[in-house]
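Retro notes (design track)

What went well: tokenization of the new backbones is finally stable.
What didn't: we kept losing track of which sequence belonged to which structure.
Fix going forward: every design gets posted as structure first, then sequence, in one message. First example under the new rule, 260 residues:
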């Protein structure tokens, strides 16, 4: 099930996405009563997807990101594979949705794309045992961990390098039925392939990441875990269109603009 968050005439809601872009009528939203983090009902009220603005699939309290979770990516940046997961936080103000612009930060001259599988948490959880990790997942979405690489190299803490406004595009929706153990991840810039990998290449799978993170902090419904990026990261510039495609989910597209 694909659950999208949308805005129409100033009203924000959720709906189940039905149909495919290639179908004659295009995909439609079956509006739901309530929200996807509890039991909900479909209203039967349907809207063409093209008539609404698709928002980030969740407004997380926090985004917990995992670095160097693909060996080849760690290698391309000259880093060793860490003995324990490298984690950091991206603030809620970094989150943007599909087709929202990525503002190029004024304090950086080297901004990179990082295509990632994102986990959307479905319930409050703490100290989750591995065998129950999947029970706390609502679903998965596409993410782009936009990074000011030059700032990351010069500052020991990554708050500015990875937490600036617009540095966490998410979308286009949450896919609740994905088997995330082995799906393809691709990033293109202006249609040119930059990254291509599979989640089976992750050093630590989703379940292990949930165990590790919830040992330290409580995750709330709607919180997001970024699971790391495969090799091939590289620069983006003002005017570039960046697209993250994950097998079984869809494509998240954003354009880089000059920040006012």
């Amino acid at each position: 099930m694909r659950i999208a968050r949308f805005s129409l005439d100033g009203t924000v809601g959720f709906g189940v996405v039905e149909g495919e872009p290639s179908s004659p009528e295009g995909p439609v939203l079956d509006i739901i009563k309530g929200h996807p983090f509890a039991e909900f009902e479909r209203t039967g009220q349907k809207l063409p997807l093209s008539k609404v603005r698709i928002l980030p699939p969740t407004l997380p309290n926090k985004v917990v990101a995992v670095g160097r979770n693909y060996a080849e990516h760690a290698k391309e940046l000259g880093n060793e594979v860490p003995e324990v997961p490298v984690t950091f936080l991206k603030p809620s103000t970094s989150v943007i949705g599909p087709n929202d612009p990525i503002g190029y930060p004024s304090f950086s001259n080297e901004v990179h794309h990082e295509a990632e599988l994102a986990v959307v948490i479905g319930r409050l959880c703490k100290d989750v045992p591995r065998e129950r990790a999947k029970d706390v997942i609502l679903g998965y979405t596409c993410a782009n961990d936009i990074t000011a690489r030059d700032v990351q190299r010069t500052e020991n803490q990554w708050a500015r390098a990875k937490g600036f406004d617009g540095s966490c595009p998410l979308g286009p929706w949450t896919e609740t039925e994905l088997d995330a153990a082995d799906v393809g991840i691709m990033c293109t810039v202006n249609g040119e392939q930059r990254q291509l990998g599979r989640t089976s290449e992750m050093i630590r799978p989703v379940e292990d990441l949930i165990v590790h993170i919830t040992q330290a902090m409580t995750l709330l419904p709607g919180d997001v875990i970024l699971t790391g990026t495969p090799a091939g990261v590289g620069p983006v510039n003002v005017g570039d269109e960046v697209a993250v495609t994950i097998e079984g989910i869809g494509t998240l597209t954003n354009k880089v603009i000059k920040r006012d």
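Added context from the reviewer: The chain has a mean pLDDT of 96.
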